[in-house]
Description:
Layout: H1 3-30, H2 45-58, H3 61-88, H4 90-94, E1 100-103, E2 109-115, H5 120-135, E3 139-145, H6 151-164, H7 169-178, H8 185-194, H9 199-205, H10 209-225, E4 232-235, E5 238-241, H11 247-261
Parallel strand pairs: 2-3
Antiparallel strand pairs: 1-3, 2-4, 4-5
Amino acid sequence: MTLKTGLATALVAAVVAALVTAATVLVIWRAAPGMVDVASAGLDEKKITDMVHNYLTKNPELLVEMTNELDKRQAAEQAASQQKIIGENADALFRSPLSYTAGNANGDVTVVEFFDYNCGFCKRALPEVVKLIETDGKVRVVLKELPIFGEESEAAAKAALAAGKQGKYFEMHQKLFLEPGKADKDKALRVAGELGLDVPRLEKDMEDPSVKQALDEAKELAQKLGLQGTPLYLIGDRVISGAPDDLYDQLTAKVTEVREKGCKVTC
C-alpha cells in the first residue's frame, strides 16, 4: 500500500465514522427532550456506513479537496511553529560564532542552510547557493553542518570545520561536494592536500572541542525545527525544504520579501 493510498483509506474511514456519529447525534437531537439509543431510534449504522462509503467512492474529488485542505492547515501550523522556534533561537541560527558565514558578513538578509556532504539534493543545490552569493552582494549565508548520513558524513563535516581554522572552509565545502566519490575522511584529507592545507594540523583540529560544539548545535537546532532531511534553508523566518528545481528563484524571491517586509520574529 502506498502512502497516498493509506492516507485515502484512513480518510474515508475517518469521514465515515464522523458522519455516522453525526447521524446518531441528529437522531438523538430530533428525539429530544428524551434520550434514545441507536437501536430504539431505528438507526442502522451499517447501512449509513455503506451509504457514506459508496457516496465518497463515487465522488472521490471530495477526498482530494479534504486532503488538500488538511495539507494547507498542517503547513500553516508547521510554519507558525517554525517561526516561533526561529525567533526563540535566532542567535544560534543566524549569529553563531561556531558556523561559517559566506557572502557579505554584514549583509542585510541572512540565509541559513542545513546540509550533509553526502546528500544528493544538497550537492545539486550548491551552484544555486553560490550563484546567490555571487549575484547578491548584500546576502550573508550561514552554513550549518548537519551530517545525518552516518560516520562518513560526520568525518567530512569535521574536516570542513577544521579547514576553517586554516582559512579554507568555503573552498573545502565546495570541493567536498564537487569532487567525485562519497564524502568521508579519506576524501577530505585528499582535498585538504589539494588545497594546500596542513593536513596533520587539520586532522588534529578535527577533534577540537569547537568542532563538536558546532555539530551538536546544528543537530539541536535541526531537531527543534523538526527538520526531516537536508537541505533546509531559512531566509529570515521563511523556510524552503529540499532542493526544488527553481531553488535560486525561490531564494531570491524570499530574500526580496525579507528586505521589503522584514521578519515576523527576530532574525
